[in-house]
Amino acid sequence: MAKAFSGADVMLLTNYRDQVTGMAGNDRMLGFGGNDRLWGGSGADTLDGGTGADSLYGGAGRDTLRGSKGNDMLSGGSAADVFVFGAADGSDVLTDFRDGQDRIRITKGAAEFDDIRILIPVQGDAVVLQFAGTTLRVIGADAETFDAGDFLFA
């Protein structure tokens, strides 16, 4: 596993299975291909898994996480985070969305809140969001509390 330094680092990874920890500082990590595991650390980090089935962990800062193409798992951490999704990004899982604190940014495939289909699974404590070939399972969410204020549109 690679570790970044304590400053604001930029890490461009490989097309293989990378594991990187960002440490302190406002880090930027781009995973490219492969099934990557990226840990942001304590800064305001930007993590992009690239293609592949990636696992992104933001950490303590106000992070921006994007799984990109593939079936990804995103966990922001304790601060207010932004989770970014676009059209045909796959089937992703968001583990720790906090209503009123975190935001979901949609870059392509939905221009407004009404373009998002909200489903309530028969079992479990999750809400499923669908738009333009992307499925997002939000664990611990309540469909009744999702509203336009939880989303940002590009």
Low-confidence stretches: 1-5
Strand content: 35-45%
| Count of helical regions | 0
What top-tier CATH class fits best? Mainly Beta
Element order: H for helix, E for strand:
EEEEEEEEEEEEEEEE
Spatial order of the strands in the main sheet?
1-3-5-7-9-11-15-14-13
How many domains would you count in the coordinates?
A: 1
The global form is: globular
Quaternary class: single chain
- For the record, give the distance between the C-alpha atoms at the N and C termini, rounded to a whole number: 34 Å
CATH superfamily: Serralysin-like metalloprotease, C-terminal
CATH architecture: 2 Solenoid
Structural class: mainly beta
CATH level-3 fold name:
Alkaline Protease, subunit P, domain 1
Kindly report the average pLDDT value: 86
Q: What summary fits the major beta sheet?
A: 9 strands, mixed
Walkthrough of the structure:
This protein has a single domain (2-153), classed as 2 Solenoid (Alkaline Protease, subunit P, domain 1), CATH 2.150.10. The chain has no helices and 16 strands. The protein has strands at 2-3, 10-12, 19-21, 28-30, 37-39, 46-48, 55-57, 64-66, 73-75, 82-85, 90-94, 103-106, 117-119, 126-131, 134-139, 151-153. The strands form 2 sheets. The chain has a 9-stranded mixed sheet with strand order 1-3-5-7-9-11-15-14-13, with no helix packed on it. A 7-stranded parallel sheet has the order 2-4-6-8-10-12-16, with no helix packed on it. The radius of gyration is 15 Å and the shape is globular. The N and C termini lie far apart (34 Å).
